[in-house]
Amino acid sequence: MPYSSSLTDREWEIIEPLLPNKKKTKPPRWTKRQILDGIFYQLKNGCNWCDLPKDLPPYSTVFWHYKQWRGEGVMDKIMDTLHQQVREQMKKKHSGQP
């Protein structure tokens, strides 16, 4: 069940290339998209990590990835990329006005 914080397919297309690729030792149980949905759910709703809905990955998995990606600068890269895209969209909207 998607939440208002869940990624759309278009958003996922933008964010997926920004995520690090790790050497896989076994198939992951949760996709990076599901983990990001958990991160964005917590950030949007401000709930405790352990209060994530049960249909999202376990909070320990979501929090671990959040800490790793934040420490590696991945979360900043995602924010910068999305911010730049919004700025470009705003320029296009206002470029026709005097």
From TrEMBL:
Put simply, this protein is called Transposase
What InterPro entries is this protein classified in?
IS402-like_dom (IPR025161), Transposase_6_like (IPR052909)
Q: Which domain of life is it from?
A: Bacteria
- Residues annotated as domain Insertion element IS402-like: 7-79
The protein's matches in PANTHER family, at most eight in alphabetical order, are given as: BLL5188 PROTEIN (PTHR46637:SF1), TIS1421-TRANSPOSASE PROTEIN A (PTHR46637)
Q: Which organism is it from?
A: Waterburya agarophytonicola KI4
